[in-house]
Amino acid sequence: MAELYTDKVTQKKRAISLDIARGSMLFLIILAHIPLYLYMIEPGVITKVAGSTPIDHFLNFFMEFIVDNRARPLFAILFGYGLVMIYRKQCERMGAEEANRIIKRRCWYLILFGAILAGVAGGQDILMTYGITGLILVSSLKKDNNKIKKYVIISITICLIYIPILWGGFLFSNQSYGLPVELTGQETYSNTILDRLITIPIIPLFTHILFPVIPSVLMGIWFGNLNLLIKPHDHIKLLNQLTIGCLTISLVGAIPLVLINDVWFPSFFIAGVAYGIHIITGFAGGIGYAALFGLLGVGTKYRGVIVKAITAMGKRSLTFFVIHEVLIVILLSPIAFNLGAFLNVTTSVLLGIVIWVVTLSVAYIMDCRQIEGPLEKYMRYLTYKKQV
């Protein structure tokens, strides 16, 4: 079993399952965000554009089953897991009070980074959302897992009550299965900067209401308290159960949305309810993915170019998340190369693969040359600079 490996840059032991999960998650996020810029194609279902070929339709189905509302919960689980690791380490060094201060400081800087990404670069932000979540849940890090389980159940129950109804009403008022892309092709950097800056405080509020992440972050805290991904060999039975059970729930929960507008033509309200179910079962998808990466960490050895490249990106996930978002804006939006006006579903997925492979190569080269992720390095400086 080789679930730990030595980071060349810091010479510290790292969990291979966590870094593989982070690196793989970034690929899913690319695939989820690129369709938001395909503004010359008729809307499909929710954030998807309409497919024009059998391959387009297959890829849309694949995305709805595997990626949409599943990558975000995985990110949230890994974020919650990371909070536990920071809290535990700082408690040992400085005590619980200082650990809380450090986590809060880190979360405030995440919010700042996210605001810059959304307002200045125009990328799809999730950093502000997770920073706010960290501030909300920092006090739960000292709770035992029985309390965390109760918080998970309560938060998921709240989502079950309002998310399907909210989305049902949203699509009913929109009178369409799809959400139109707001891009027109006339955008420039200068004529959109003010709108981006104005929407900075709205983005995390919008995300927390329509795409809640708190249940998944709490689940990540539960995972962290059990050391599920750092010591997966101690929890193989549980990881197997979570992988099979939660991925099954995720796949079944995606079926109603996949059928809409091809096999099933419900009312707009019912279509919104189906999307709400898709979001909620995505919580299970995130858990299943995290558990699956835990199992992969049991048998995966830190060798081979592909494994090393993915873990290299995972160690630098903040840096490469921002790079990916900036590249998507530059390549697809009207403010730069405007490829979003020309790509279809299939070619956009191919572009996403190219972006990930190229940046994966960069991450691998950085790791071989022992170059730290610049945003990770700066975040660590900002977070810990007050420590003596």
Give an overview in words:
It is a single chain. The protein has 388 residues and is mainly alpha-helical. A two-stranded antiparallel sheet has the order 1-2. It starts with a strand and ends with a helix.
In short:
This protein has 388 residues and is an all-alpha fold. It has helices at 16-33, 54-66, 71-94, 96-121, 127-137, 145-174, 189-199, 202-210, 214-226, 236-259, 268-299, 305-315, 317-332, 345-368, 374-384; strands at residues 4-6, 13-15.
SSE layout and pairing:
Elements: E1 4-6, E2 13-15, H1 16-33, H2 54-66, H3 71-94, H4 96-121, H5 127-137, H6 145-174, H7 189-199, H8 202-210, H9 214-226, H10 236-259, H11 268-299, H12 305-315, H13 317-332, H14 345-368, H15 374-384
Antiparallel strand pairs: 1-2
Helix pairs in contact: 1-3, 1-11, 1-12, 1-13, 1-14, 2-10, 3-4, 3-9, 3-11, 4-5, 4-7, 4-15, 6-9, 6-11, 10-11, 12-14, 13-14
Tally of extended strands? 2
Largest sheet entry: 2 strands, antiparallel
Report low-confidence residues grouped into runs of 5 or more.
none
Average the pLDDT over all residues and give the rounded result. Answer: 93
Order of helices and strands: EEHHHHHHHHHHHHHHH
Gross geometry: globular
Number of alpha- plus pi-helical segments: 15
- Main β-sheet, spatial strand arrangement: 1-2
Q: In percent, how much strand structure appears in the residues?
A: under 5%
Structural class: mainly alpha
Distance between the termini: 37 Å
| Total discrete domains | 1
Helicity range of the residues? Answer: over 70%
Radius of gyration over all CA atoms, rounded: 20 Å
